[in-house]
Amino acid sequence: MTEIKWTDGAVEIFAFGRSVFRFDRQASPLSVGRGSATYKMKRGSFKFREKAFETVPLFFGAPKPEAGAVELADKGGNVLFLLKASVDGGLLRLRLEPLTQRKFNRLTFRLPAEADEHVYGSGETFTKFDLRGETARVWVAEHSSAARIAKKVLYEKVFGKKPKRVLKFSSYETYYAQPTFVSSRRYFVHIDSNAYMDFDFTRPDRHEIRARGFGEICLGFAEDFESLSRLLASLLGRQPRLPDWAYDGAILGIQGGTQAVLDKLEKAKSENMKVCGVWCQDWEGERITFVGKQLMWNWAWDRELYPNLDAVIPQLKGEGVRFLGYCNPFLAVEKELYKEASSKGYCVKNSKGEDYLVTTTTFPAAMVDLSNPEASEWIKRVIQVNMIDFGLGGWMADFGEYLPTDCVLHSGEPAEEIHNAWPAIWAKINREAVEERGKLGEVFFFTRAGHTQTVRYSTLMWTGDQQVDWSFAEAMPSVIPASLSLAMCGFGLAHSDVGGYATFAHIRREPEQLMRWAEMSVFSPLFRSHEGNRPGDNVQFDSTPEILRHYARMSRLHAALAPYLKEADRVNSETGVPVMRPLFFYYDEPRAYTEMYEYLLGRDILVAPVLEKGQTVKAVYLPADRWVHLWSGKVYGGGEHAVGAPLGKPPVFCRADSCYLEAFLKLSAIE
């Protein structure tokens, strides 16, 4: 299927009978160099300074077909590397083998591009989906710092307008960064390295990857996007299926203790809400700061805040409601788990040999040294004993993106070289905790930070801490490109906090915003809410009778979709084809390649959520097919249509040829 041909004049790559790339001898698709970088982190956000000492363009020399290689030489003809290639079906692997004693630590790789080409990926992107014309930074970090959001909101409040300076896409940071991109020409590129990288898609004639390290270059080719997803999954791995119970309605985000949980569940029952779980992030304790209600970060049951929880958890499970919690790889310095970890030398150190304390928002915390096998086993046992054995059905496995580059690790590895891999190591520990207890398929966890191996270890992503307003850059709209970009990187299971999380300055969650977000989350793999960092300042699912009725109906809709969602989940688990898919997956149309606020749920449902306040009619783009409006049964063809979108009936369509059509149309009768 894929073939590489070496000639005296060029190197050419063929896939499925067509020439995909051709590199002439005079061209320089690769450069190596030497350099150093400095990193400065504040609350998970990084500033960088790169210093280059040397850059050496490499040119193709003599081909060595018998070795599957070609020589790479500098301008003077000195052979510095062998470029080795191996082909397996649609996958091409390229590896540099040094033939020189000169030490290089920088790599630039260029691919020919076409003017009308589109590209997606580099991890999770919130403000862009098609990255053509942009440069994407591949370095895991805090996506939205509280300071930046608060500063922007304060400016708008004082001056009554948005700041003139708009943050460039290349300056944005993301929780989940992965050195993978997919082209509209039906190929992907993945770099097998943890190094910092820039993916530069700004030039009309080429794509350029600049890495602060070396790694195998993998290119995958397919005839369609489903096949391309399968090929990427064969390289990176797949997620397991979620537990069946996770599809039985809503998981309610509730804080405040045992009685608060039971009281809110009674309210939910009063409206016949389908509830499959309660997610109580403060199960291990709370702390109140100027940011709002935060957590204690001591991964053990807080008996004072949650009395009788050991009896309540099995009681709720008997009623079909799982209890979910929260943990992360930090430890609160005031509590017992930190004292134990510190006494055993299990925390990340600073240059003086002291525990390295990191401030994420308002308080310092220690980090478990995941490079230390003993420390990793210790935190895994904490998860197993204090969470799984205690009866939790799942948890948010937060953070992983905060490893500072100036810390000292037990393994002796430079922190710069392991920083990107840190969230994947954290996901691996959580996965092992579940598997070793024999609970995979019954218990799951969801992560927000990630890198390459996260695809293989995490059971579910959530899209992080969105604002509780209508912002396209930071709130509900941003989770759609985030989920789709994750899908293009091989992570096919993602969801968001219904209602968002972040409340700053004058931002408050409104009833309409919460209800619209709930509508969107019906048509996603998991339906889970969050009270936010200031629960008392924001409306909740039970704040008014109207919201409660709406939320209850949405929970019943999500539960009714369970057979379809489970099938899409199965496909993702077995093949790597994601649950949420971009429109161009099946429709080769110009608009489909740039659409970032509509998506396909599985193969047969098209979702165009209402993302603007007060909108009751929405312009919806439908690709060329026959589409049945979910609520009215009206049949539409391709093109743009003005569609009514009253509360409770967002623009959702199903393919007229779907075998699920009859079941879909029954959803309109659910009250």
Give the arrangement of secondary structure elements.
Elements: E1 2-6, E2 10-15, E3 18-24, E4 30-42, E5 45-64, E6 69-73, E7 79-88, E8 91-98, E9 106-112, E10 119-123, E11 135-138, H1 146-159, E12 177-183, E13 187-192, E14 197-200, E15 206-211, E16 216-221, H2 225-236, E17 250-253, H3 258-270, E18 275-279, E19 286-289, E20 292-295, H4 309-318, E21 322-327, E22 330-332, H5 336-343, E23 357-359, E24 364-367, H6 373-388, E25 394-397, H7 415-418, H8 422-436, E26 444-447, H9 454-457, E27 461-462, H10 479-488, E28 494-495, E29 497-498, H11 511-522, E30 528-529, H12 545-560, H13 562-575, E31 580-581, H14 590-594, E32 599-601, E33 605-607, E34 617-622, E35 627-629, E36 635-636, E37 639-644, E38 652-655, H15 661-665
Parallel strand pairs: 17-18, 18-21, 21-25, 25-26, 27-28, 29-30
Antiparallel strand pairs: 1-2, 2-3, 4-5, 4-9, 5-6, 6-7, 7-8, 8-16, 9-15, 10-12, 11-14, 12-13, 13-16, 14-15, 19-20, 22-24, 23-24, 31-32, 32-33, 33-38, 34-37, 35-36, 35-38
Helix pairs in contact: 6-8, 11-12
